Protein: D-serine/D-alanine/glycine transporter
Amino acid sequence: MKSPAIPEHPESPKLERALGNRHIQLIAIGGAIGTGLFMGSGKTISVAGPSVLLVYLIIGFMLYFVMRAMGEILLSRKEYRNFADFTGDLLGPWAAFFTGWTYWFCWVVTAVADVIVIASVYVTHLLPNLPPWSTPVIALLVIAALIGLNLPTVRAFGETEFWFAMVKIVAILALIVVGVVLILSGFTSAQGTASFTHLWDAGGFFAKGFLGFVAAFQIATFAFVGIELVGTTAAETKDPDTNLPRAVRSIPIRILLFYIGSLVVLMSVMPWTTYDADNSPFIQVFDAAGLPAAAAVVNLVVLTSAMSSANSGIYSTSRMVYGLATQNDAPRMFARLSSRHVPRNALFLTAVVLLSSVVLLAAGLGESAGFSVVTTVSSLCFMFVWTMILASYLVYRRRRPQDHAASRFRMPLGTVMPWVVFAFFGFLIWAFTGDPDTLAGLLATPVWFVLVTVGYLVVRRTPDHRAQRAEFRRQVAEEHREAERVSVG
Structure:
């Protein structure tokens, strides 16, 4: 049965399935290892102490079920290109509009923040003698480079993200190996002797109390944005029945290794009380070990991680706008593909929006001004997208029991965990009220949804949208009848 939320246009070229298994696996890893781990973990350690391990574990556990729900639905119908398609198919055309444009906004905000930090922090740390006027120019060059990497083919993006993710993996594994050697050898620095006992000997595991534990959720959530990125590659993935489940199933191992493993090592090599909240703990460990060259390399890795995040943002926003345009939720000019099957106009739209980072830098906005507010807005918008995925899954289970029964990639605990994750998201919203900066971001976020609502009220009056809603109602009625026949049978 054809999905009403995904109208077919015979004259439109199709996206090309050019991403192989190694691309999908590394894109999934890159999405699960954000810049927040390399930079934000210093602040989470300082506000929560060793209990930060539990914070990352809980967030990763909850988001794993979001990914499993997304994976089951994406594989249930091959015409789904991303999760905006299935939210529209299962919840209605309004859901595709809200999910698609909110996800676009999520990544645009994140990418603008990444470009600002790359130009004003990471590059200037590596090249401290650059004149102040060069910062906006660096931002412009970064944007041009990222568009250039995405413009040729989807495989070019896949290769770029493969190597970006590989750099992050090697850096984390190097930290873990060096850290374990330092711990087992009883390495002593100005901060003390490396030991696993640091995890509980400085005030206990919950050294900052319950409020410190809660405060870490505000920062740590941003570290996981992008974990759903693999869900935007569905239409360009070779053998999705094999590659997508493999990427999703490996998420728990990656979280345990890259997040929990690295943080255990960090807080064992040096007491957690010695870390500077404003600097990367990875760099601080190599500095303490007397390896300044390694610390400089980690600085380069952090730069690469930010480039990877911005690169992912450009890819995902272009595909989302392309999908919206094919559903008449965005101007049709963004539905055009180049001869190499790349949504070139959608890429240029993202590039134009990213130019705001150049303007902000030219106006004197650096790395710290409003950054907490920006990351909070981004985190909340990502939470909205994750919520729409779970809501779609609940409807999918109710309306299409035959699809769920036939699935080879069923979500575990599918009747319970969506509600548990919803409750957890409610807890996160409450946690965001505990800090003035994150509270400001929480209060600013509804402005976006007001704008999206206005946009939808305009497009829903078009003949195409009226036809989509009528077709959606017809299909819902038909699927309910089919579900009843299956339950009776």
In short: DSSP finds 18 helices and two strands in the chain. The longest helix spans residues 292-326.
